[in-house]
Amino acid sequence: MLINPIKFYRPQTIQEAAELYSSLDSVKLLAGGTFVVNNLKSSKKAGRKTNDNLISLKGINELKGSSLSKGSLTINSMATITEIFEFSGLKDNLSVLKDACSTLGTTQIRNMATIGGNIACRYTWTELPAVLIALEATLNFADKNNKPKSMSAEEFFLNSAKTDDILTSIVIEHDTDSFCSYQRFTRSAAIDLPLGALCIRTDIASGCFSNTKVVLNTTNSFPKRDSTLEAFLNGKKAADNIADSALNNIDENILGKLNNEYQEHMFRISIKNAVKNIIKDLKTK
Amino acid sequence: MKITLTVNGKQHELDLNGNETLLEVIRDHLKLTGTKSSCDEAECGSCTVIINGRSALSCITIACDCDGFSVETIEGLSSGEELHPIQQAFLDKGAVQCGFCTPGMIMSSKALLDNNPRPSKEEIKKSLDGNLCRCACYQKIFEAVYTAADKMAK
Amino acid sequence: MAENKKDNLYLNPVGKNVPRIDGRGLVTGQTKFTYDIKLPNMLYGKMIRSPHPHALIKNIDTSKAQKLPGVKAIVTAADTENIKFGSNEFFFPHTVDQLPFESEKVRYIGDEIGAVAAVDEETAVAALKLIDVEYEILPAVFDAVEAMKPTSPSIHSHVRNNIGLILPVNFGNSERGLRESDYIREDIFYTQSAAHACMETHVCVGQWEEFSNKITLWISHQAPFKVREALAKCLKMNLNSIRVIKMASGGGFGGKLEMLPMDFAACLLSKKASGLPVKMCYTREEEFSFSRRKHNMIYKLRSGVKKDGTIMAITGEVIADGGAYCSYGPTVLAAATMRIFMVYNIKNLKISGYRVYTNTPISGAIRGFGGVQSGFSIESHMDMLADGIGMDPIEFRLKNITGPNMVTTNKMIISSNGLRECIEKVTEACDWKNKYRKQSHICRGIGIGIAADVMGSKMYKSHESAGSIIKIEEDGSVYLFTGAADTGQGSNTVLSQIAAHELGVDFNRIKCTSADTEITPFDTGSFASRVTFISGNATLLAAKDAKKQILEIVANELKLDAEILDIQAEEVINKDSGSVVMTFSKALELCYSFNYGKQIIGTGSFNPRTTPIDFRTGEGNVSGSYGFEAQVAEVEVNKETGEITVLKLWDAHDIGKAINPQSVEGQIEGSLIMGLGYTFFEDLKMRNGKVMNANFANYKVPRSINIPPMESIFVETKDPQGPYGAKGMGEAALLPTSAAIANAVFDAVGIRLKELPFTPDKIIKALKEQELNDI
After folding, report:
1. By the CB < 8 Å criterion, does C700 face chain A?
2. For helices B85-92 and B102-115, what crossing angle results, to 10°?
3. How far is residue B6's CA from residue C224's CA, in Å, rounded to a whole number?
4. What is the domain extent for residue A34?
5. What CATH superfamily is the domain B2-75?
6. Residue A252: which residues within 8 A CB-CB, separation 6 or more?
7. CB–CB of B126 and C703 under 8 A?
8. Fewest 10 Å CB contacts: which of B121, C35, C280, C477?
9. pTM, full prediction
10. Is ipTM > 0.95 here?
11. Is B75 in the C-facing interface, judged by CB distances under 8 Å?
């Protein structure tokens, strides 16, 4: 056996899942399995103890699917990356979600992995957190008593808030006047985890950047907002020269902490390209 | 834990402990050894099967989590003497060398064509990004899938 | 009728794209690999390994593990004859340096000191934890240059300064050659270690039959006869007491070319477990950490040319990191140095090769042997020499290359040689004239690399012959028994094509059984691109022999001269008149009829006309024939991100004759992609003797999205010795790839990359340095 003995549960409702989750010790939630099952195997190989109980969320229909209604995109937490990528409503500010999903892992991984797992696993190098923060996503949870709770994606990641609640859905407002760009780079031409990723989102008001969010994911810590660059961009006219001058207004504390010259270089290139793309999108609109 | 698993159209009632991967059930319980494991860390794609119409890695799927699901493996493709068009195309185009990655590669290809019957060459390339072939038959594999799609559409 | 026969894939199949003879089982998943073997009462084995890179073994205590329920056998050096084995023993007896289980000293993390067999893998792993080994840790050395210093710890007592082998290749007068040069340059190139990363890891099942004292070993392998020989040596048994059966094998690429301690362990454990079969299967982590790896090399070159482009001398030094034991080191080193003579017609060459021991995993044979490392170094260096005298790289190559029907300075006998045609065809195909030095404004460039390849080489034995037997049954069905090991390159199919074509029968009559040491004749194995040429010739001879036997009976019966008869496309024909005498089926009936009752069994043995290499001088004709190629890469460099996009690869290849064009193309494309991976991201990283990226997540191999457009161009020079004119084709296409790309990058953006792999950070660094230098 590749995995240690485990008691497997497959609840059919969120209520059931919450009850199980609160009553069991040494328990892990299982979404797509691309992290959890891989870890169970590698832990056993390494001789480490693993959880005694596993609760799969795959049987819960309430947690499946996505919908776009009244300008609000709701993605239930067990929606797979492929399902999100193929969702036809991802336009305007939501298109960065599609971009991030298209480069995540490989085909099979995209078919299995869920947005919920990508968020809840708390790994610093996962792809979607930066995008969700930039899009001002709201995360909905059910606590151990199945009572609903909410917090912003930003609060969840930037505050490293630990939670024992079950993530049920992600809500993002569809904003036709919002422009976003997602950039991602790796250490070589091979398919790889990101060496860095970033998402910039801005509302263009009277031709100027406003309410800008610049979220950098340096992959060794949770995504950070570059408030220096945000402050620089806000109020500036969305013109071509902004991309280059933006590079002089980055929070050097974030990039300065990187020990990797190439990574730092690529962040600068990516920031420039993200700003350029936003300006290009604005022009074509 | 008792589960029902439909594999290649045949329903199986299985009594499992809970910690079996789908790959272990396919190979050891059902004795279908076409599906392979080459890395056991979700990287190589040799363990690829189709679950509910989508390609998936059986080495990181818990078998009990597939209760009620429909699973397709390489053994389910040909019917008697006749090979599935994808299998025939792989042979005709020289897309098989050592053959170890072939079952997984064919299942990924089938999953693609089931969902996208006329893919472009770029779409074929992208959809096979989870299947490693060290003999690097890739170019001929793309041609085989393209040819099979053509044949199946007629 | 004739027209149909021409179109028929299976009649006169040489030169046609006959589908894999064993393909159906592969596409249906029905073929059983060694990985799939499950025998009744089969045990699972694990190796007992050293956790230290360098240590003395003081004591091994297996008593606790013996008591663990489910453990059926434990073996250590005490259970063996302590006989060493090696891979280049015939020519280099002093490189036989490895014991199946070390008893006194361990030399790398993972060095094997014994093995355990248990009812399941989990129990075997648990047993390992209960084995107490007392080590006295010794200082270790992990870098080849460091290891050569007299102050470094000595890894093997039979050598000095950890230099396992020196190959002092020295021909002509290089000092004078350099003096007479108009332009001299010096360069150092660094090539990284890499892994075979076969899809099927190393795996075998050993079973000891007590009453007959016979071993059967099922194995995923390229050279089962080599395994048999090593087992016989270490177990002190006769060759016919050991049966090694090669199953369908999921790749080899040079990594499955010798006996590993795990193969020995499977057999010995079975003996100790009263004959229960024992399976040894490497996990992916074990495969990366404890099998074989590519020699990382430092390649120093100092060469001189005349203004007119004549190469006056090539000198240099190669330091190859061999890891803890010798494996195929000598052959790798030879390939890294002597092969230059196959490509360039030069008189003066002085390159000293050093294979150095370090306390790291063992370096061995990997596709291309040392030709990849030298291909990158030499072909980059050549381009830089051409640039130094303002000469076009194509013109420079054409001025200096070898030609047909010549003897090289180191006495290699070249017969057919299509190198000139390869260069001409590839430069035409890629539109060299309109692209070279014309695209830097869009950061695009084009570069060439050329190479030559052997068709076999006497590596570990005095001979390297291949044998084939063709047995024709009464109903006309045909057995082909060949020793050649098909690890996916399609040799079963190609050899069956040769057999069918020569016999004059439909390909579908043939059933091929290969690489079973008890049934098939001897064959040294699948390496050095030797199978089509050597095993192909053996098959041709066997088919000729079988046909002769049939025709003699037909001639006798019809009172004709056997010389005027032939079998073609299922018919016995009179060559003089062109008329059909009888069908093949009728002819066979005749052979087995009352008057004759003759069993048709054709045999063939072929040993290529080569001379032993004098490894003190580098002189000798290593191969019966030589293959050649010219490769061009076109790239685009993104100066912002450092990404290099390969726009296209062209490979013009002198393959003599393509027996199965689709298979040849598959080998070319497969090699090109492996070359691409080595150029851009394959890198086996080690720290303090431990492999740090022992998984696919961190050791990157090419995937579907990495594949550039490729074009294979065949140059068919019809080799006089090859079967139907064919040469071999298995590995050459990756020899010049890194250099072609490096040369293309120079054309595109003017930076010279001398260290592999070309990851984006290196390109950015080089571009930044270039900017500073330009200021």
Report:
1. yes
2. 130
3. 41
4. 7-56
5. Beta-grasp domain (3.10.20.30)
6. none
7. no
8. B121
9. 0.97
10. yes
11. yes
